[in-house]
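Good morning N.,

You mentioned wanting to compare the apo and holo forms, so I went ahead and generated the holo version with glutamic acid. This is what I fed in:
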Amino acid sequence: MYSEKISEEFKKHGIEIGDRISIKDSEGSNEGMLMPRPDVSKSDIIIIKRDDGYNIGIKYGKGTKLKRVSGKQHAAPEKRDSAKPQKGLPKVTLLYTGGTIGSKLDYVSGGVKALTKAEELLAEVPELGNIAELEVKQIMSVFSEDMTHMEWKEIAEAAAEAINNGSKGVIVTHGTDTMHYTASALSFMLHGLNAPVILTGAQRSSDRGSSDAFMNLICSAYAAGNSDIAEVVICMHADSSDKECMLIRGTKARKMHTSRRDAFRPVNNSAIAYVSINGSIRYNSAYRKTTSLKEKVAVKSSFETKVALLNTHPNSSPEMLDFLISKGYRGIILEGTGLGQIPINTKHSGYNWRSALKRAIDAGMVVGMTSQCLYGRVNPRVYSTARELADLGVIYCEDMLPETAYVKLGFLLGNYGKEDAEKLLSKDLSGEITARSETEWKSDI
Ligand code: GLU
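and this is what came out, ligand included:
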């Protein structure tokens, strides 16, 4: 609670928590949404959330002038009907896992908090009911930074079950931070996939005017219900406008921006398709198509957790590798520099990775090389360092993204023996390696 004096002032001006207000004092003027007073703050400090997202506290004093600018700005539309299942539309299953797409602004903390019911999300996008006969299953409610291979398994099994029970497609609503890891994991785990599995999320929560949740969900529903893509894809804004989404192959997608709505880009690959908000699908590059075969989807979900993703950089220490060897790690993906180099020729012994790398390979570790450039292809034939690394037994992972290679190696070591894992790491299984990299690269994002 604010102080008695401030509460009286609020009353006088018809101001309530959540309203947009302006505060003027000798220091200047500020506008934003009135937040409740956190327990830790003094009762004469008024907290507002500014448009840039930051909360600021302004001391209320004699000369402070308050004004109510407008009513609650961020409240979710309350009087919208939930998506009602309609007959005759394609059957689509929506698996709800959490993330910003399932979050709301919390008026108490000023942050975003998870919605606990999938229905709360659907109530805000009733349009979905006109696109697909939607079955919603909340299988978890977690932010994606907290996901593990155990959640990947749960999602893979729920997706397979939905398709095997007749769903035309599956939507997985997911936090965006690690969505590309999950997309890769599902791409490797789902076998005999004959339907689209579409991961989608939001960079801004659904109760904000600028939220991308609505269009991402609508485009995902169109793609899940009407496309003939038999792959795992990510469906997010194609650019910063609200016109269309991009479908990006799950093993070739990466979150490239912390906050932009078009943060996900295909790397070394073209978008598979663009889906407009009106439902038209414009196919853009080759993809695996659904067939009339009635094979059941199977899930291979074992995962070797003793696999690491390691970035080498100037001054990086090979002790990290020795630590992993001592812990019994079975695989490592190196995120090397440029075409796939790590420091094995420096004269400074504490920074030279050569002998630790030999120890790792002698201990039976599978070592894969990717590039921290992300775009382009690693190549052991250009520089002598990379040639030496390949001779030591490092496997060059072509144009695979480091995160995808990490997930793939965990999957391979979890489901196959070491020799097969070594052979398969540099072979394309789920579109993760292209014969010739397509460079759809936007330097302006
Ligand atoms: N960090 C959270 C997550 O990845 C929220 C971010 C988001 O969903 O965009 O789940």
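The mean pLDDT is 88.

Happy to go through it together on a call whenever suits you.

Best,
F.
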